[in-house]
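User: Modeling request: complex.
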Amino acid sequence: MNAHDRIVQFLKEADGYVSGEEMSETLKISRAAVWKYIDHLRKDGYGITAVPHLGYRLVSVPDKLLPHEIQSGLNTRTFGKNIVAFNTVGSTMDEAFRLGMEGAPEGTLVCAETQHKGRGRLGRVWSSPRAKGIYCSLILRPRLPPGQLARLTLTAAVALAEALRDAAGIEPAIKWPNDILVGGKKLAGILTELRAEADQVKFVVVGMGINVNTSASQLVDGAASLRTETGRIFNRVVVLRHILRSFESWYAVLGTRGRFDPVMKAWKARSATLKKRVRVTGPGGMVEGLAVDLDTDGALLVRQDSGVIVKQTAGDVVHG
Amino acid sequence: MNAHDRIVQFLKEADGYVSGEEMSETLKISRAAVWKYIDHLRKDGYGITAVPHLGYRLVSVPDKLLPHEIQSGLNTRTFGKNIVAFNTVGSTMDEAFRLGMEGAPEGTLVCAETQHKGRGRLGRVWSSPRAKGIYCSLILRPRLPPGQLARLTLTAAVALAEALRDAAGIEPAIKWPNDILVGGKKLAGILTELRAEADQVKFVVVGMGINVNTSASQLVDGAASLRTETGRIFNRVVVLRHILRSFESWYAVLGTRGRFDPVMKAWKARSATLKKRVRVTGPGGMVEGLAVDLDTDGALLVRQDSGVIVKQTAGDVVHG
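Assistant: Request completed. Predicted assembly structure:
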């Protein structure tokens, strides 16, 4: 832990005021350095009061996805051990991809308070109102052939749905392939990108956009947030910790060779698509019928009215 | 065409000496500019003699992969219309990938006289002695799902084999998946990398390393060059033009939906692997048996001695 994080820790654990002298002695830094760090923390949004002869006191923590706040008490092995946080960014996907190319380790997280070029699947815009949602991308280095990326995407959907259940007490559904729904509305989206050789993934970036404290007026049509769904405001840092933990443990399940079965089972249990009439628009055109099953590679099996079963590996689903 | 390229053209088409004054007038640039460009060309390795009152005369073209030399007489539609050439580079793959991320158009070619981190498949080193081979990477933006990348790799192998046949009068064989052999030795290699979303390729970089004028002593064990095979020295620019033309036309075949059949047929006709006993070491371990066929997704079908046919989507083949 660096001096900056240790001062936050110190202030958080203090019972009332802490003198600059005490921090200076314990952390073995100068009084001037303590003052400099306090100033820095205030600029980051920490509410810190200072009283002569008493010292400093932490009165509020900012509503921000700050690396040391996320990592505080985060008991993961690799997910989120390395965090790059932005106030404003074009897209966390692009930043994470760049970091992946530079060799950033598995589990590196890129997050931002807002994105001005937030992206969803198939080049769509992902609305990212400042400090209302969680906009993040995780770098992974799985041993998967590129053609099995869909498995990782479905795994991310299951992990995210369970994390949001744990964080907010809701039961999200999953719309094929990986939209997270609540009450039929879109609560979160997942975007997966990879760099690969013909037969070997170099790295994957899994992006997640979650509407957390977004108000109804800030949401696009057909979208929901944890706030609109529950009437409560959430600590985004806590929600993000749930996500990192859940995703890491599901990722470990997938990592064990041939263990896609548990993911499929969990995915099917939350599916908003299976047993429904669907229209799937994919690269090969539109298919209409009954979504009968998920294939072992993550494809959707659609039984047309003719009885023919068509396999859709990609595309957009319209239910109903 | 810029002034630089037009001066080269002018000198090439001239019958003997051309005066600076004539170039200045025709190209509508100052005499000083003509002199500056001539100086530039000499630094690029062009042999240009200058005689007072007569002017300039081109006596030799450098043995270099210069963009305007490659493009001169290149009748492709997109392949090589945009060229980034290096004297020395880490790896043309990495440069091309970076350009791909910045939005470089389909057909953009990156080439280098030498690479100090030239890569082959599966992270291996690709030896790149200066000015002896063709080390290049092409950016493509095909409409393929990521799982079908193998099709593009096989297409590149067929295109490269045919280009080398046309350029040098040899009949190269293809070792699964995409090594180009001549007389059982490796003449060229292909490396494919992509950036993709779960269901959509963003771009592909196809890298090719071809041993052209490499001498026997510069080759690693088991490798050949056009020179060692034919006893002749080749103009690398001409060879590269053959490659760009051949690849563009095969790529167009693949681009037409469902037209992988012609590629498979051409690939099989040149296969050094089919009907042979092979040991294939892939991500799932080693498989030994008879290579019976190529599957429609580019995988190799191996019949083990037990009679069971195993599908290998990736890996290394040892013939034997």
